[in-house]
Amino acid sequence: DAKTTQPTSMDCAEGRAANLPCNHSTISGNEYVYWYRQIHSQGPQYIIHGLKNNETNEMASLIITEDRKSSTLILPHATLRDTAVYYCIVRVGSGGSNYKLTFGKGTLLTVNP
Amino acid sequence: NAGVTQTPKFQVLKTGQSMTLQCAQDMNHEYMSWYRQDPGMGLRLIHYSVGAGITDQGEVPNGYNVSRSTTEDFPLRLLSAAPSQTSVYFCASSSWTGGNNSPLHFGNGTRLTVT
After folding, report:
1. Chain B partners of A45 at a C-beta cutoff of 8 Å?
2. Could you tell me if B63 lies within 8 Å of chain A, comparing CB atoms?
3. B103 touches chain A (CB under 8 A)
């Protein structure tokens, strides 16, 4: 799987949009971009994923650049409960060593009142 | 539908003791995996399985054994616990059938302390 690079930490004011970047310059054509978050010591929680097109669900939006080398997770109206570590990973659907899903250290997002 | 269930939630072991961390999922997922998380670190993959009878090593497999006799269960065994294995352990599962892009579902973790 392609490696990803994320900033170590970010701050955001409550009620404002939080934009979390992720670089995945070695992504392959069949690899999806996934975002997860981990609140305190809980198990990571799936947020959203995409291949080429921008995606939106009830939690967030995912913007993927045209060359697919980077993406941005957008939390449109951040709340204090969105304070968490956010992980960006890339993976294919099946096959060989791509089963090794590895996570980096993620971005600690702190939402301030 | 309970999702991914890990037991126990907390465990204290003495150096050299053995134990098994249990993980069960009720979603009929083919893929299951174990991660450990240490303070200030991300999630590191220990072992994974793509189906019953099939297991493979992740990034940090030393000191851990796994087996996958059923689709539902994926236990992690520590044969001789060491203080370096003090960590939070997460089990995860995913549907993974030929091109499927289902996300990982995580359990709530087992917090293990080895003294």
Report:
1. 106
2. no
3. yes
Q: Quickly state the pLDDT bin for B17 (edges 50, 70, 90).
A: very high
pLDDT tens figures, B66-109: 999 999 999 999 999 999 999 999 999 988 765 556 788 999 99
Contact A102, B59 (CB under 8 A): yes
Sign (positive or negative) of CA dihedral A88, A94, A95, A97: positive
Chain B neighbors of A102, CB-CB under 8 A: 43-45, 58-59
The answer to whether A96 contacts chain B (CB < 8 Å) is no
Size of interface A-B (CB pairs under 8 A): 70
- Is the CB of residue B35 less than 8 Å away from at least one CB of chain A? yes
Rounded Cα distance between B41 and A95, Å, is 27
Q: Is A17 helix (H, G, I), strand (E, B) or coil?
A: coil
Instruction: Kindly identify which residue of chain A lies nearest to residue B57, measuring between CA atoms.
Output: A100
Q: Is B27 on the interface with A (CB under 8 A)?
A: no
∠ Cα B43 B102 B60 (to 5°): 25
CB atoms within 10 A of CB B37: 20
* pLDDT score for B113: 97
The amino acid at residue A111 is V
Altogether, the residues listed in chain B come to a count of 115
Q: Following DSSP, what letter does each residue of A50-77 receive, concatenated? A: ESSS-EE-SS-EEEE-TTSSEEEEEETT
What was the pLDDT predicted at A94? 54
pLDDT of residue A46 exceeding 60, the answer is yes
